[in-house]
Amino acid sequence: MRPVHIALAVLVTAVWGVNFVVIDVGLGHFPPLLFSALRFLVAALPAVFFVGRPKVAWKWIVAVGLMLGVAKFGLLFIGMSQGMPAGLSSLVLQVQAVFTAVVAMAVLGERLGGARLLGMGVALAGIVVAGVDEGSGGPLLAFALTVGAAACWGVSNVLTRKAAPPDALNFMVWVSVVPVLPLLALSLLFEGPGRDAEALTGFDWSGAGALVYVAWISTVFGFGAWGMLLRRYQASSVAPFSLLVPVFGMSSAALLLGESVTPLRWCAAALLVGGVALTSPRSAAPRACGLPRGALAVERPGDTSASRTPSTPSRPAAAATDTY
């Protein structure tokens, strides 16, 4: 990779890591379901008018939108609002790689080699250590909700694999349209119109900044830049950079929010990052440079697909679905 693109990859992972701190700030202004709905609304508008029509069937857009937008982010935001630390959230979500591999094995019939099975075991050991650490001083329910969010993320990865979108950014923008109304309805039902109205009428620059960051910087910029890198280089060259996300997440939470990082949490981080590194598939595909647009599928960390050309009929292409 060229130095400028290495710097871009690191920048994107830093943006995604700091995103957990910004989510924590945003949750101080909005109820979690309302904040999640606003995040997708701002991410979809006005981008939806510039990315063109959807390039995959609506059934896949709706399925991924509900699983990723409503289930994954709904559980994550509720978990963080219930006391799950931002830094630990950035770490625990990485277990989505394990859930992706398990769901792909069950649904797509993929085989898990010895290295990936070992990686899954190591990552799960990291989750156990993180759970022990959180259980000693934090709410276990919030921890469980975050693990549930990672599981939903894994399911959405496999759904996206089945969808095989040729344009990852176009797909993500249209997926962002789907969760808005369901999340707003759930917010009105469970958080109440009074609480929502209070949050919206008390809208200030801090809340607006958090919303702009999670929607435009983390989602639109981050996803667009990551997709560009995956179109230029082998997925196996780009994907390992995503392991920096919990590093930036935990360090920024410690610096900006004063979150402590215990020895057990460092141990959990080492196990989780190492396990995810083993679980993530390797790609032997050539660089995408010089190939027609869409000739190579993109492989994302935690996804179970490999890059391939459209001439391979037996498997649909995979799309990038990592969203922070």
Describe the structure.
- With 324 residues, the chain is mainly alpha-helical.
- Helix 1 (3-26) crosses helix 4 (86-92), helix 1 (3-26) runs antiparallel to helix 11 (205-232) and helix 3 (58-81) crosses helix 8.
- The protein is globular and about 55 Å long.
- The chain contains 14 helices and no strands.
Strand and helix map with partners:
Blueprint: H1 3-26, H2 32-44, H3 58-81, H4 86-92, H5 96-108, H6 114-135, H7 140-163, H8 168-177, H9 180-191, H10 193-201, H11 205-232, H12 235-238, H13 245-257, H14 263-279
Helix pairs in contact: 1-4, 1-11, 1-13, 2-3, 2-8, 2-9, 2-11, 3-7, 3-8, 4-13, 5-7, 6-14, 8-11, 9-10
Inertia-based shape: globular
The overall strand count is 0
Structural class: mainly alpha
Largest sheet: none
Low-pLDDT residue spans: 283-320
Helix content class: 55-70%
Strand content: under 5%
Oligomer: single chain
Radius of gyration: 19 Å
Termini separation comes to 23 Å
User: What's the helix count?
Assistant: 14
Average pLDDT score: 83
Series of secondary-structure elements, N-terminal to C-terminal: HHHHHHHHHHHHHH
